[in-house]
Design a protein that fits this description.
With about 400 residues, the chain is mainly α. The protein has two domains: about 20-200, MFS general substrate transporter like domains (Growth Hormone, Chain: A, Up-down Bundle), CATH 1.20.1250; about 215-390, Growth Hormone, Chain: A, CATH 1.20.1250. The chain is built from 17 helices and no strands. The chain starts with 12 loop residues before the first helix and ends in an 8-residue tail after the last helix. Mean pLDDT is about 85; it is low at about 1-5.
């Protein structure tokens, strides 16, 4: 006897991963996204290996990130008008070729060439993350949308943990340029794994699209503003961690605090995916946003190292749920035919917020720990305030 949708027990994370195409698409996307966390470190290591300045390496990393923020909405629009299987492989070929060229260019002797290649690699980053999040609502039962988005958001922490480790390992086992070669390989391999799946080959129905695309949705603009402030918290956190490490003269804290934040995100995302009856997505986003802001208060106080690590877990508990709710809300607010571009805008805006947060925290770090710690707290508070002020646009009432 078949079980009706209304009486079917809620899915678990394991059963969602057994849904056709879900696990292969998620795995392929994670592999294809590794360069986003490998390339910045790889560019810094390659610059140092070629006896170029650290400043050049930092500029290249920033160029890569900013070019990616520009390219994702453009590629997302192309996906909405064709399919992910058409756009992503072409982008991967260009990005992979740029990474390959970076492995044979002398960074110190040809800084302009290297800068162009880094920008091209970022600009052509395949829109795998946005494409996947636009597909989830087609692949998973509506009752389980919050679960699959939570699993997706939690699993992305693996990218930010594994990417730098892989880049460092390639540098140690091969060469600094080997990390950039690995970026080329993972970009192409991950994209290919996604492009061969049937959902990625589904072509979008041809329809006229307003030139503003999803940006004509006022609710989405509210969400993007909140996401910009949310990105500030992510970008400023490593600077805060470095300051804590310097204050305690314990270098290992610079890596452990971000790792603790990621651990909290894994825990929070897993717990969010287990909820049976969450609030409506908009209200949940506001509630999670308030919790995320409150969790940063503990980091304002000077504390011993073990307490700083523990305090770093707290905002992480709300990190993956924030992203899961944000992308669900984004999908609901996106005008018809613009889901991928809308998700790409959300990703890009968070990235821009990260750049701003890192810059702001870096400038304020000279004024002490409390001032530096206030940057992520202020970013999270402004994100929550934006969501609260725009709740009607987001259908939060």
């Amino acid at each position: 006897m078949l079980t009706s949708a209304s009486t079917r027990p809620p899915a678990t994370g394991r059963s969602i991963l057994r849904t056709p195409n879900v696990a292969p698409l998620l795995a392929g996307t994670l592999v294809g996204r590794l360069p986003s966390s490998m390339a910045p470190l790889g560019l810094l290591l390659a610059a140092r290996a070629d006896h170029a300045s650290t400043a050049l390496g930092a500029i290249l990393a920033a160029l890569y990130a900013l070019a990616g923020a520009v390219g994702q909405p453009l590629l997302g629009r192309a996906v909405d008008r064709t399919s992910l299987a058409v756009v992503a492989p072409a982008a991967a070929a260009v990005s992979g070729a740029a990474f390959t060229a970076l492995t044979v260019v002398d960074f110190a002797a040809q800084p302009l060439v290297v800068a162009v290649l880094a920008a091209v690699a970022g600009l052509a980053t395949p829109p795998l993350e946005a494409g996947l999040r636009a597909m989830w609502t087609r692949l998973v039962d509506p009752r389980d949308h919050h679960r699959v988005f939570a699993l997706d958001s939690a699993s992305q922490e693996l990218v930010f943990v594994a990417g730098p480790l892989l880049a460092t390992a390639m540098c140690q086992l091969a060469s600094a340029h080997g990390a950039l070669a690995a970026c080329a390989v993972t970009t192409v391999a991950g994209t290919a794994a996604v492009a061969v799946r049937r959902p990625a080959r589904v072509r979008s129905a041809a329809r006229p699209v307003h030139w503003l695309g999803p940006l004509r949705s006022r609710g989405l603009l509210v969400l993007l503003t909140a996401a910009l402030f949310f990105g500030v918290t992510l970008g400023s956190f490593p600077v805060l961690a470095l300051g804590v490490a310097d204050r305690h003269h314990e270098g290992w804290l610079a890596g452990l605090l971000p790792a603790a934040l990621s651990l909290g995100s894994l825990i929070g995302g897993t717990a969010w995916a287990r909820l049976r009856q969450p609030w409506p997505t908009g209200k949940a986003l506001l509630a999670v946003g308030v919790g995320y802001a409150c969790a940063f208060v503990a980091l304002l106080m000077p504390e011993p190292p073990w307490l700083a690590v523990t305090a770093s877990i707290l905002p992480g508990l709300f990190l993956a749920p924030w992203l899961a709710c944000a992308f669900l809300t984004c999908d609901a607010l996106a005008p018809s035919g613009t889901a991928t571009e809308a998700a790409a805008w959300l990703i890009s805006v968070i990235g821009l917020g990260q750049a701003a947060g890192a810059a702001a925290a870096g400038q304020l770090s000279a004024f002490g720990h409390t001032t530096t710690a206030a940057v992520p707290l202020l970013g999270a508070a402004l994100a929550a305030a934006t969501l609260g002020a725009g709740r009607r646009r987001l259908s939060l009432t």
